[in-house]
Amino acid sequence: MAESEIPEEYLAGYARILAEVAATGRRLTREELTSRRALGEQAADAGHGLRALVSAHLTAARAAWPAGPASADSVLAAVQQVTDAFAEGFERAQRQAVRQEEAARREFIDDLLYGRSDLGRLAERAERFGLRLSHAHAVAVAEGPTAYEEGDPVPRQVERALISRFGDRSILLTTKDGRLLCIAPGPQDEVLAHFAKQAHAATDGGRVAIGRPQPGPGGVVHSYEEALNALELAERLELEDPVLRAADLLVYPVLTRDRQAMAELVLATLGPLTTARGGAQPLLDTLTAYFDSGCVAAEAARRLTLSVRALTYRLERIHKLTGANPADPAHRYMLQTAVIGARLLDWPAQDL
Questions:
Q1: Which site among 77, 97, 133, 226 is 20 to 30 Å from 29 CA-CA?
Q2: CA atoms of 326 and 319, how far apart (whole Å)
Q3: From which residue to which does any coiled coil extend (predicted)?
């Protein structure tokens, strides 16, 4: 606001204080300082700018400057005391407003991601934070070697990178359970792709998962859960990709939708490996490396730090125990599906 728009109420008693100081040389009393702080808080709550308020105080001081032989030092000291107290109250009110805004933002994000609020009310609150929940949204989640909180250097770095490129484009960046989150309109995939790139770099090689765009007020939590599930799958399956898309991993939830059937396949196909010396895990790791390397024995041996001869022996041992030959295309699909199922179900570490 301009100086002329600053209401006189925020200068109430100011001229009287200056006149008394000029006459007596006294300093402001505790009550006067308290009242100046209170006026500063009120001005901040009303939305006035501190610069305009200070300017109004200086203008009022010039207009009320004593004409007599008053000590300029005393009057200037009073002006300084008044403006300092006023600014202190103003800044205190602003800090309180920031804390309240942060609390409201955190409450909104919790309700949004847990889906525990009335959807209509949630959509109304979302507009305050730049989201229109009637449209589709997608969520990207990044995790690094440490947990992140709001205000940490890593979230601020990623936020600056997004704002510098896209500006204010209905993007919400936050943290949840130590992870970085970016919520963006569904059609703006470039936003989440850039977030993934920046978050991967800022977290020293952390992993990022991007959920599919989902419509409606419940779409955000749906996309968020997809991204979390993708991160869990990546860890369990030891996927190496730094950026994962839930749309590319849909086959895995399909495989485990009937958990009992998958468990039966794992036990029927791979169960005999438990009779091997050392248990099933070394042979299961062999199959994993073999399939992950495109069934190229030399590459699989390199990944396992084995000789090709040792790898071939293990594959023959698997064939003998299970009756399925990993090198035979007719057996390969069943074996590979069972291996994926074992990793998803954490077998043999967990009993099925």
A1: 97
A2: 7
A3: none
* Residue 69 pLDDT: 62
Would you state the pLDDT for residue 3? Answer: 45
For the chain, list residues with pLDDT below 70.
1-4, 68-70, 115-117, 168-169
Please work out, in degrees rounded to the nearest 5, the angle formed at the alpha carbon of residue 345 by the alpha carbons of 341 and 348: 95
Please report, for the chain, the start and end positions of each structural domain, with discontinuous segments joined by +.
3-98, 127-248, 254-344
pTM (predicted TM-score)? 0.66
Its CATH class, for the domain covering 127-248, is alpha beta
Q: How far apart are CA 249 and CA 245, in angstroms?
A: 7
State the Cα–Cα distance between residues 231 and 216, nearest whole angstrom: 24
Q: Any idea which architecture 254-344 has in CATH?
A: Orthogonal Bundle (1.10)
Judge whether 352 and 262 are in contact, CB under 8 Å: no
Give the bridge partners for 214, in sequence order.
137
What are 262's two structure tokens? 């998958």
